[in-house]
Amino acid sequence: MKQEQNEEEISEKTEDWDEEDVGKRIVKRVTPNGTYFNELIVHVFCSMCGASFIGPSREAGGFLGGHECLHAWEFGQAMGRSDGLTE
Ligand SMILES: [Zn+2]
């Protein structure tokens, strides 16, 4: 078996990612919360409202989690019940 050379592309950007950056890796990203290493840039979307996001996998997780949480809350409101997501 011939081992394929898997050369990963690196993104030099630390912000303002777009479609061209999806699949590339961010070697180092410094944020007020900490420093992230070797993050993949991903493109995700919310199946509930169609919003989409391109950026580091960590932020993509936050995007998806945030939308999921919001839409769950919206459902709760529509059903006229409190499911603990309100204060
Ligand atoms: Zn959404």
H/E topology pattern: EEEH
Termini gap: 59 Å
**Radius of gyration based on Cα positions:** 18 Å
Inertia-based shape:
elongated
The percentage of residues in β strands lies in: 25-35%
Neighbour order of strands in the largest sheet:
1-2-3
Bound molecules: zinc ion
Mean pLDDT: 89
Largest sheet: 3 strands, antiparallel
Low-confidence stretches: none
How many helices in DSSP terms? Answer: 1
- Say what oligomer this is: single chain
Task: Give a quick summary of the entry.
With about 90 residues, the protein is an alpha+beta fold.
Write the topology of this structure.
Blueprint: E1 25-31, E2 34-45, E3 52-56, H1 57-78
Antiparallel strand pairs: 1-2, 2-3
The structure holds zinc ion.
Any key phrases for this structure?
87 residues, alpha+beta, three-stranded antiparallel β-sheet, 1 helix, binds zinc ion
Describe the overall structure:
The chain is of the alpha+beta class and 87 residues long. It has a 3-stranded antiparallel sheet. The protein has one domain (7-78). It is 25% helix and 28% strand. It is elongated. β2 (34-45) and β3 form a beta hairpin. It has 1 helix and 3 strands, in the order βββα. The model has no long low-confidence stretch (mean pLDDT 89). The structure holds zinc ion. The site of zinc ion (ZN) has 6 residues, from α1. Zinc ion binds next to α1.
